[in-house]
Amino acid sequence: MPSAYRPERQPDFASFPDTTPIVIDNGASTFRIGWAGEEEPRVAFRNIVQRPRHRSSGETVTVVGDNDPALMKYFDCTRSVIRSPFDDDVVYQFEYMEYILDYAFDRLGATSEVGHPILMTECECNPSFSRARMSELLFETYGVPSIAFGIDDAFSYKYNQKLGNCGEDGLAISCEHGTCHVVPFLKGQPVLEACCRTNIGGFHITDFLRQLLSLKYPYHSASITWEKAEELKKEHCYVALDYMSELQIFKLKEKKKQILLKTTTEGRMRAKQRRAEEEALREKQEEERRFYFGVIFEMDPTFVNKAEAVQQTPEPPKARILTAEDYRISIGIERFRCPEILFQPGMIGIDQAGIDEMVSISLRRLMENESVKERICQSILVTGGCSLIPGMIPRLESGIRQFRPYLAPLRLVRAADPLLDAWRGAAAFAASSRFGRQTFSLADYREHGENLFHRYNIVYSL
Amino acid sequence: MEPEVVKAEAVLPLTLPFKKVQMADKYPKGQSRGRQWKHLRNLLQGADASSLPPDRPNYLNIQSPPSIYPPKRYCDITGFEAPYVDPRTKLRYADPEVFKQIRMLPDDYVQKYLALRNAAVVLR
């Protein structure tokens, strides 16, 4: 997807009956919206809001998602920051959320009202204040008849279960934008008592890369933006199978390069010295010649040294010519150093377990016997954007093996499409005829208030 | 608005026909909005911790605990394993070459490198 992708307005909003649910995958990085029962979301955009000032009229305007940089020149973005409604994986800024929903429903083609039930994804154990404010917003501002909330990883797992990638009992490892989750599943239902979360994700990898590069190249620090770092990450980063040995290999390579550099610099030094010696020799000859001229001049005062009479104009000092070196940045160790923070969050000062260890924590929290755990370990699904980083699956496998008994069976699968599966699973879920029982309406919310959410958990196996 | 901005629909309209309450009614123009939102940490402290039974999973108690392994130390500049710490700047470094480099670093860079692993000195 190009960074300046703008979704088109969908023309067929009115052709759907009022009972067809709208499915929203409200991810911290990307917002996806579409219709229940369809295979692809209709509209997807980056979940961000900017409020720049329009240059010619001075108005503050709202821009949602990424935009064509050619259009952004009409806006003064110096004082507006890119904002997200999310803190980690919880929606907490409902003003921004409202702009995003405005834009999403507008792109989906809503004209007079949004009269459809809504299924929206959320994180594991979303705090009830966030759910409450979200439902208030949907009920009161958009007039939605009913709402259901579900966990994105669970939908992704269910979707892959349908595809045959994982079984009824299993485990989902999800590395998302701001957090990583590990959730065990028993009989197709997530066991939230045993799930765990580390507050580290793809955002942190990109940010770490950005900061490292801008410290390494202070000259370029203004042009290494978060978006550029994100592109670099997608293109070059990989996960080392064994971080320590990868470091050793890299260090050896670096040493060789240094030795090469040293020999070449020494060669250059020697050449310079030789040149200096030649220069000195020439100077000496010149001196001798001058001396002879002096002798001639004494004999013949009219003699003019033509060669010296032509005075050379002093050349202006040349500005240093910028070479390719000045525009080039090299990423070496950063390629695997940045994704490593998922496994060692301590590297960026987060005192929590890495994703391989999270699996063992989750299994420990699961109050089941060893045979169940063994079955779970044979159906591990890896999903979320970071699972696309090359080398992720082998590394996770070797990491998890360390916590399991010797020769215990282990099987890891990457989700069919780690980015879209959550939406697809949710769309399939909402298309079921029994979806209606999982939703709650405005009347329910008025009756129970926030208490409604303390015990709110939908049933994923319909 | 410039014609290409209008054509691309880059800007969100102020009123949308499908909304019951428009943005301008919720947040009237010219009224200072101040900071009405709180950080997630404050919101969590206020809401969930007290009202929920501790044996049920909630947003706070599903967090993973610290790792059982001792944290490895890596050089702040090069990323290699770092056996040494510079007592003056508190930066970790891998070999004498890097040590020379960190002694040349200006102070704000030292702080930026420390901030990478959340170890910078924050003056309040």
TrEMBL record, chain A:
Keywords: Nucleus. Its main location: nucleus. The keyword Nucleus applies. Pfam families: Actin. GO terms for cellular component: nucleus. Transmembrane segments: none annotated. InterPro entries: Actin (IPR004000), ATPase_NBD (IPR043129). It is found in: Nucleus. Belongs to the actin family. ARP5 subfamily. This is Actin-related protein 5. It comes from Leersia perrieri.
UniProtKB/TrEMBL annotation, chain B:
GO terms for biological process: chromatin remodeling. Pfam families: YL1_C. The keyword Transcription regulation applies. It is found in: Nucleus. Keywords: Nucleus, Transcription, Transcription regulation. InterPro entries: INO80C/Ies6 (IPR029525), Vps72/YL1_C (IPR013272). Its main location: nucleus. GO terms for cellular component: Ino80 complex. Residues 73-102 form the Vps72/YL1 C-terminal domain. PANTHER family: INO80 COMPLEX SUBUNIT C. This is Vps72/YL1 C-terminal domain-containing protein. It comes from Leersia perrieri.
